Amino acid sequence: VHPAITMHLKPHQVEGVQFIWGQPSGEHQYITGGFVFYFCISFFNMMITITSIHTILRTEELSIKTVLVVAPLNTLLNWMAEFERWAPDDEPIMVGTYNLADYGTRKERLKVMEKWSKTGGVMVLGYDMFRLLASGRFAHLLLDPGPDIVVCDEGHKLKNSESNISIVMNKLKTKRRLVLTGTPLQNNLIEYQCMVNFVKPNLLGSIKEFRNRFVNPISNGQHLDSTERDVRLMKKRSHVLHDMLQGFVQRKDYTSLAQYLCGKYEFIIKVRLSPMQVKLYRHYLDTMTNRGSDPHAVVQGSKDTGLFSDYQNLMRIWTHPRVLQLHTIRRRGPSIFAPTSAATPPHTCTTQLPAKSCIRNPVPAPVYNQPSGDHTQCAETGSHTRAERSKRSGCNLDYFRMDGSSLGKSRQRWINEFNDETDRRARLFLISTKAGSLGVNLVAANRVVIFDASWNPTHDIQSIFRVYRFGQVKCCFIYRLIAQGTMEEKIYDRQVTKQSLAFRVVDEQQINRHFTAHDLQELYNF
């Protein structure tokens, strides 16, 4: 490893580089197979990967010259910046570093890819572009024989074996595969099997075999009402699975950060609905779902598409009825509530401030105007971000707003301005959870308000680590606002279950069993 890079490596990053090369055991693997790196923050992954790539490319006896980095679109600029940042002054980090997104036409892309394949270097491109280009004239460059090494950033995108990107990625002939992820297990073990199968094909068997050997016994034993036999079997199968993965999966959680950063404090604030919201919520359950009195009729798997439609509508109620009204206006269709409804119609929502908004309004002084220079990042769904935009405009507060429609260049400019310590007006950033959960560095902020609980706990976790990361010099405060008694509270409870499963399998921790199987079917109870 080049001394200019070594001097910046943290101990856990040194372990990561050694893990790839097999130095602790004395076996020099030289990345002859696949590896999964599970780090809570992308900087760990990037630094380990860049160090390993630089060392491999400058080791002539390995005959490795081409590296392909496939990453989400939001992170491509980060990768290019990090490659440039860590290039030793006396030695270029590699022959060439190419961001395929910089080339607009197929002819230009083919030309630069042929140059990369011939002369070597690192090619960076997004998952969608890889899927589109890995056919026809590009197949021999990307798939067969493909690059010498493939790096998949945010590798949990390969969680579905039937998705187009997973199908294309599994056609790669490249044997040296490195998967980087902060959240390898998001919803269930089947997703984990798909990702592991990419780096070590057939190690865990087929999905059917994996379900019988691990998924069913582990799932049956993690409930509060599980039998003693089920619990023993769950612990045994979790231990076996952890041992099988130990040789090529390395995991570091946020405790690796603790010695370098100030504290992180998380608060769960459960908020009661206002009387008006209660009426709207009950009216929807009684008239739109026909399930209000039968919670067992829901959550029967992905076939029940009505669940997610109901969730979207109910979310608009517990967030702010104004969001429901805006949604109806955008659709230009009839409201889901009849005009003669006894419930308070959405257009009267300004007569009483809903509960979550009441939490937000009393705190502008301590959060936004503290002498200590606190900045705030608010992670929200897109629908709530739009409603919040109009309200903050009325309060005469400066803010940035990012959602799925924001252009990449604009995003980076806003991030730079927000992180500028000399700009005293940039104190608030409204971000759609999915749009801002990857490739965003907001260390100027030290307070995060997560306004909506996501079905996938990954999105909320990633939002937190946009702030709690290297470069943060202040203590961080995380506030999760949960609508008490609603479907959102049940969803947050399911997040705890999903994270416990991840700790049990990936970390081999013995996590308390939080809920009964019946609890997980009560999403419609109110």
TrEMBL record:
Q: Protein name, please?
A: Helicase ATP-binding domain-containing protein
PANTHER family tied to this protein:
RAD54-LIKE, TRANSCRIPTIONAL REGULATOR ATRX HOMOLOG
Query: Which terms are listed as keywords in the entry?
Result: ATP-binding, DNA-binding, Helicase, Hydrolase, Membrane, Nucleotide-binding, Nucleus, Transmembrane, Transmembrane helix
Q: Name where it's found.
A: Nucleus
Identify the GO cellular component terms for this protein.
nucleus
Residues forming the Helicase ATP-binding domain are 48-202
**Gene Ontology MF, one:** ATP binding
SMART domains in the cross-refs? DEXDc, HELICc
Coarse class of the primary localization is nucleus
